[in-house]
Amino acid sequence: MDFVNRSFASVLPEGSSPSVNIDFSTFHLSPSVVTTIICGLTLFYWWAISRAKASRDFIDGNYNFDAPIIGPKNPVLGRLAFFRNGPKYIAEGYAKYKDTFFKVSGNDLLIVPNKYLQELASMPPEKLSLNVAIVDAFQRLHSITKVITDHSLQTRMLNARLTPRLGLQVPAVQEQFKKYLPVELPANSTTEWTSVNALHLARRMVHRGVATQFVDELKENEEYLQTAINYSEHGFKHNFAIRVFPDFLKPIAAQFSPTSWGVDAALRKATKMLIPLIHNRRALEKTPDYKKPEDFLQYLMDGGIGEGDSDFTTVQRLMVTYLGSGPSTIIAVAQLLFDLCVHGEYVETLREEIIQVLTEHNGFTHTALAEMKKLDSFMRESQRLSPPTLLGFNAIVREDVVLHDGTVLPEGCHIQMATYAIGMDPEKNGPNPEVFDGMRQYKKRQVKGQGNIHRFTTTADNNLHFGHGKIVCPGRFFADHSMKMITANILLRYHLQFPGGHKQRPANTSMYDVLIPDLSTCVEFKLREDAGRYNW
Ligand code: HEM
């Protein structure tokens, strides 16, 4: 027991001694205490499991569909192996079975061939649901999953209110970017390089843009920015942390995971900041000449009236949307910065286009962003080669689905498609798919009649990184705006390179099918001599 006392002592100030000395060698538990502890743990376990089952669909349909499993077949070993080597198993499955079905992560995921895309993409959520898959991914984290249902208000408001009005937001977002880019990217010298962590820069800029469009009053509030970052990053990690556990342990693991405490704490903090603000807006609505803010919070407040939403539910809906808008866009911006460093030969071409378009449109506008076709193509190539996930088109089959050739996907199947492998398949994306061709899509858009397809936001059977049809990201136009504005502002004002000018892209790490860019990679920036010339 010596080491117990030593470890107590090690946290005390030097020279002091522990005031309580516990002699563990004489520490005995009576049989009645042991029985009480076992009963307590059993009751707690029963409560945790039944609580979860009462509120979630149980997903086990893949066991009823016969397809080869790539990797270990045992559920726990399969999941662990997929956690460590996801890219390897997906590549192997696609190489062997791209036109049929295969499973990865034991029986967890059924990978469906691309030939069924169109019929699956048009199915209603009552048959094939993205939301049930998302709820499953956040395993029993009710502060997140409570407001995620098919036809969720937040998704409808993204589609119906925020996306059509994205153009209205552009000047306000640009004002923030112009003001804060020099703060987040303090490279003031035209001769010396300044090194900045790429992911940190991406995180700060993405969240500034999101906050401007989500809650006007808090767009410059540092505490709010940090709360939104904490919420989305704990939520993102929670998904990974819980996935590896055997199903029967997930409810307990989820209750005790620091990631779920992090989400709950951030939600409590956001609630404190947002509820008074919502009350204030409602009071102002009663005054004459009040003009409601054009932001996502307002859309959720207005839409929530018909849903009978409480103010707290409105806050939950707002915060849950950060899970979509935060991590994937941050990762995409970091990957873009890396690609600009590796493929520096595109920088001047992209910059020329940006300057030409902004000159024509007198600054940043919705149309100007749509006209940045070379940047659009570069972004899509960056996403094709470094997507956030190697799988997509994530959905749960809610009632038996009979496919055109008679194949039946049983109720409860969890399906995905091998989106990265599809993007890298020469049959789908043309020759040399492994080569980064920043103008690949731009060239395709020059073909008569194809000017409006092959865009970053256009999903197709060879471009599934935002999903497709009804299984699709409603925030992709928002992401398109954010990414173009951040990149354009950086290219207008700074030179960039990897430290020392090397051209080696840092290797991504993977967890399951998720690709994470190297968190520590820095990019060096230097102020351009002509940075002051363009005042948009
Ligand atoms: C580059 C950035 C982004 C990527 C790669 C991305 C990707 C995706 C994907 C793949 C899905 C699910 C569809 C599937 O599994 O195939 C999805 C869903 C979703 N995304 Fe995004 N997304 C991005 C940015 C955003 C932004 C900026 C927002 C919000 C402003 C957003 C909001 C959502 C929401 C709410 C869902 C769930 C849709 C539903 O409930 O029906 N995403 N996203």
UniProtKB/TrEMBL annotation:
Keywords: Heme, Iron, Membrane, Metal-binding, Monooxygenase, Oxidoreductase, Transmembrane, Transmembrane helix
Coiled coil among keywords: no
Keyword Nucleotidyltransferase annotated: no
Molecular function per GO: heme binding; iron ion binding; monooxygenase activity; oxidoreductase activity, acting on paired donors, with incorporation or reduction of molecular oxygen
InterPro entries referenced in this protein's UniProt entry, alphabetically: Cyt_P450, Cyt_P450_E_grp-IV, Cyt_P450_sf
Record-linked SUPFAM superfamilies: Cytochrome P450
Binding of heme, residues: C473
TM region(s), chain numbering: 27-48
Necessary cofactors: heme
Pfam families in the record: p450
Family: Belongs to the cytochrome P450 family.
Protein name (Swiss-Prot/TrEMBL): Cytochrome P450
